[in-house]
């Protein structure tokens, strides 16, 4: 029993017309009829009742139809799996992410990979800040991560998003009445922010901007992620400097205000170790290049995957 004979049988069984089935298979009608005769001879049964006007399945043909469809589907799956392995489209890729910057980009990537590369398993590791991700990428325990530039030596990256900083305030705060707030206006405020030990690029940029404005921020509490950080703001524990993507997190009693003056902008990138030869990673990066293009407002090197 050959697969091409089963394919011909299924086409005739579904069309109930040899001419249409032959057209569907892009072959002549005579070879198709020969395939059916060979299959019937091999099985020792008659599969179709044929007249000059009609074609009908026999009881044996009806019994064969679903198993034949199943066998053809299995054969197709085997072919796709082998071809996917050949092209690096089978495997496991670990992805590190943290913060609001990855909340919009990550679903775009995971959905596209799931649709286009079903043989690749994405393992998502959350609450992984830039410093942590860099360390894991460098030591080879993480394949790719969303990080803020710059990256370490030996790590390649491609910018996927530009994030301006802004300030999150309790809605009852006096500064919430303004359209814009300067860093100097925050000198007497209590700050809530991300953990210092985990290498948050947002925290580093906030501290640097405060120092340039002439003061050191008074940090009263840390939070592990953007949602909890904004919950602390809404509870009146303090204010927070966050990236603009945090606007997508809607919590009661929290408002966002643009920062005045020279506002830090963080280039957010996908980063991976230059020596990582994983074919699965390369396939994921090709998908990422299409669904997460470098933003037009990034004015760094044309191709950060080579430049960093």
UniProtKB/TrEMBL annotation:
This is LysR family transcriptional regulator. Pfam families: HTH_1, LysR_substrate. It comes from the Bacteria. Residues 1-58 form the HTH lysR-type domain. InterPro entries: LysR_HTH_N, LysR_subst-bd, WH-like_DNA-bd_sf, WH_DNA-bd_sf. Gene3D superfamilies: Periplasmic binding protein-like II (3.40.190.10), Winged helix-like DNA-binding domain superfamily/Winged helix DNA-binding domain (1.10.10.10). Belongs to the LysR transcriptional regulatory family. PROSITE patterns: HTH_LYSR. Keywords: DNA-binding, Transcription, Transcription regulation.
